[in-house]
């Protein structure tokens, strides 16, 4: 196999492989054989990790809107701030407690560093809360021990001592300041992924021995990929190893906190859950430091599209987006999974054709099985989830530009205007649209309808020689051979002059064809005809499509009218006018 690539000039040798940093033998790993079959415990850190990453941190008004949104979505664990580091955060925590804004089934948490004075201040922010967790962290990775903190030797003893003294301070503050609070404790060995596994375990085991987890006492050990360094499988190995060795496993929730520096935060979280974790932390649409935290929306909807209840409600994704954009003052990208404006949109002609056919088949099966269409199994090309499940309409699924084919055009005419064009007519009209889009740009449904009307439907500014001004039909019964006969009297406007004609045929359409052939020297034969209703109730109309051969030319015509007979005659006139127009252009 030929490879034409050349070595890059970038200094890649300055970087060390993650596998050379962390020595962990997991040849007996079991996580690849696991499946995600239930939702994890979710914690939103939008108000803490997300907020601290904003150029313009949230005001109290924006924080309240975010908090209310998180509660509405269904989050039962919400990290609401870093009160010892920020007076606005302290004030916000006090506000939601004093105003009784926290539902009974929601546990708030707050972050603190492992310093006694900061821990006491943190506990003071929680006075009066029914359920609250203090989340304490200290960095454990070698570069922090040696460079940031300047510890002697390997710095392990000093680092563990910080964690133990901090835990002791948390327990003291909980007892003295929060005696009436259902109190939980969360510990994070910050920079976990860069920490030697045996040392991270040693620190956590010491913390848990001091805290003494027990049933009914909420205890969380959080294992953050503070900076995403390795591939998701490496993180999963670390999580599985840790879950195997952590003491008090049945009383401790192992939590994940992936960041997205390598762009694989979601994958790391999913593999970490497969590896045994119980809980994940992140932000809506992946807001957070640098490239962001784990995107909770994507993980939740990934579960949903596998038939697993995420236990979070994103059925009005547009409301979620609007609130998040207002609170963060950052837009959700058009291509962001599940939420972006274009994620359910196809411009490609082949994609549009496949979607159009699949929707038609889905409707057919729903009718055939008498199943409500919203309950039909979702099996749709290019659409991993039903947009309606997220509160989106089907209107933006297919958009037309120069890449689009008949499928996209047909879909928009059907969904927006109720027109179900015959297949050969779709091919013909797609050529019209190709000419319109040849200059580039996108065509809206309105523009497609305008092009269809201009091409096929007589309007107030009608083109073409013929228009139907009046119609009268009379049934003559059946002849001896059983053939039905009908007399038609039709008033036609021809080049602006009105004339009346009379003709016979097996029906109004056949009679009009005979009239036109006899009086205007047209060698016209009907090749195909179809009709359907448009709309419902009192507003129902008929749409008729006719394919005719005039000489050696195939032409399609379309007609719309509340009366089906008149719609069919309008379709014939449409085809004739198009033929005459094309001949005059020649």
Secondary structure topology:
Blueprint: H1 18-21, E1 41-44, H2 46-50, H3 60-73, E2 77-81, H4 87-98, E3 107-113, H5 116-125, E4 131-139, H6 142-148, H7 156-177, E5 182-190, H8 197-211, E6 219-225, H9 232-245, E7 253-258, H10 265-274, E8 279-282, H11 296-304, H12 317-328, H13 349-369, H14 406-417, H15 423-437, H16 445-456, E9 466-478, E10 484-494, E11 497-505, H17 508-520, E12 524-534, E13 541-550, E14 553-561, H18 564-585
Parallel strand pairs: 1-8, 2-3, 3-4, 4-5, 5-6, 6-7, 7-8
Antiparallel strand pairs: 9-10, 10-11, 12-13, 13-14
Q: Your description of this structure?
A:
- It is a single chain.
- With 586 residues, this protein is of the alpha/beta class.
- It folds into three domains: 37-328, Aldolase class I (TIM Barrel, Alpha-Beta Barrel), CATH 3.20.20.70; 349-456, Helix Hairpins (Orthogonal Bundle), CATH 1.10.287.1400; 466-585, 2-Layer Sandwich (Double Stranded RNA Binding Domain).
- The protein is built from 18 helices and 14 strands.
- It has helices at 18-21, 46-50, 60-73, 87-98, 116-125, 142-148, 156-177, 197-211, 232-245, 265-274, 296-304, 317-328, 349-369, 406-417, 423-437, 445-456, 508-520, 564-585; strands at residues 41-44, 77-81, 107-113, 131-139, 182-190, 219-225, 253-258, 279-282, 466-478, 484-494, 497-505, 524-534, 541-550, 553-561.
- The protein has an eight-stranded parallel β-sheet. The protein has a three-stranded antiparallel β-sheet with strand order 9-10-11.
- Helix 4 (87-98) links the parallel strand 2 (77-81) and strand 3 (107-113).
- Helix 13 crosses helix 14.
- The radius of gyration is 34 Å and the shape is elongated.
- The model has no long low-confidence stretch (mean pLDDT 91).
């Amino acid at each position: 196999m030929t490879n034409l690539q050349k070595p890059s000039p970038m200094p890649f040798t300055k970087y060390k492989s993650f596998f050379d940093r962390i020595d962990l033998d997991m040849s007996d790993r079991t996580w690849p054989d696991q499946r995600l079959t239930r939702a994890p415990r979710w914690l939103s850190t939008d108000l803490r990790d997300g907020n601290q990453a904003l150029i313009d941190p949230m005001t109290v008004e924006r924080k309240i809107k975010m908090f209310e949104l998180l509660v509405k979505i269904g989050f039962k664990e919400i990290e609401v701030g870093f009160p010892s580091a920020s007076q606005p955060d302290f004030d916000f925590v006090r506000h939601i407690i004093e105003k009784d804004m926290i539902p009974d089934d929601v546990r708030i948490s707050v972050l603190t560093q492992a310093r006694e004075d900061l821990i006491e201040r943190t506990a003071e922010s929680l006075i009066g809360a029914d359920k609250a967790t203090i989340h304490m962290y200290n960095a454990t990775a070698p570069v922090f021990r040696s460079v940031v903190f300047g510890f002697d030797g390997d710095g392990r003893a000093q680092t563990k001592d910080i964690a133990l003294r901090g835990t002791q301070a948390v327990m003291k503050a909980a007892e003295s300041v929060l005696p009436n609070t259902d109190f939980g404790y969360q510990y994070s060995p910050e920079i976990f992924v860069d920490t030697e596994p045996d040392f991270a375990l040693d620190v956590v085991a010491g913390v848990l021995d001091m805290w003494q987890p027990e049933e009914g006492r909420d205890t969380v050990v959080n294992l953050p990929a503070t900076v995403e360094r390795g591939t998701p499988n490496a993180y999963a190995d670390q999580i599985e190893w840790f879950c195997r060795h952590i003491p008090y496993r049945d009383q401790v929730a192992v939590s994940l906190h992936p960041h997205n520096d390598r762009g694989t935060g979601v994958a790391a979280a999913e593999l970490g859950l497969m590896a045994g974790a119980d809980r994940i932390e992140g932000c809506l649409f992946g807001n957070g430091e640098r490239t962001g935290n784990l995107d909770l929306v994507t993980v939740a909807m990934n579960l949903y599209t596998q038939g697993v209840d995420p236990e979070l409600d994103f059925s009005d994704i547009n409301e979620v987006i609007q609130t998040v954009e207002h609170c963060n003052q950052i837009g959700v990208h058009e291509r962001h999974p599940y939420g972006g404006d274009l994620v359910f949109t196809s411009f490609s002609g082949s994609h549009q054709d496949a979607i159009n056919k699949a929707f038609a088949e889905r409707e057919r099966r729903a009718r055939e099985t008498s199943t409500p269409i919203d309950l039909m199994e979702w099996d749709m090309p290019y659409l991993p989830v039903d947009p309606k499940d997220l509160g989106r309409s089907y209107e933006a699924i297919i958009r037309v530009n120069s890449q689009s084919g008949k499928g996209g055009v047909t879909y928009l005419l059907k969904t927006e205007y109720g027109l179900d064009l015959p297949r050969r007519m779709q091919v013909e009209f797609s050529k019209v649209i190709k000419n319109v889009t040849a200059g580039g740009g996108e065509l809206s449904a309105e523009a497609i309808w305008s092009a269809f009307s201009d091409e096929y439907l007589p309007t107030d500014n009608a083109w073409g020689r013929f228009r139907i001004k009046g119609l009268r039909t009379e049934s003559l019964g059946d002849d001896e051979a059983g053939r039905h006969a009908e007399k038609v009297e039709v008033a036609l406007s021809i080049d602006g002059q009105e004339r009346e004609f009379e003709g016979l045929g097996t029906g109004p359409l056949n009679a009009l064809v005979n009239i036109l052939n006899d009086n205007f020297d047209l060698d016209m034969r009907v090749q195909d005809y179809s009709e359907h209703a448009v709309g419902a109730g009192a507003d129902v109309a008929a749409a008729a499509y006719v394919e005719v051969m005039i000489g050696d030319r195939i032409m399609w015509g379309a007609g719309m009218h509340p009366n089906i007979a008149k719609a069919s005659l309008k379709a014939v006139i449409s085809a004739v006018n198009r033929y005459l127009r094309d001949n005059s252009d020649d």
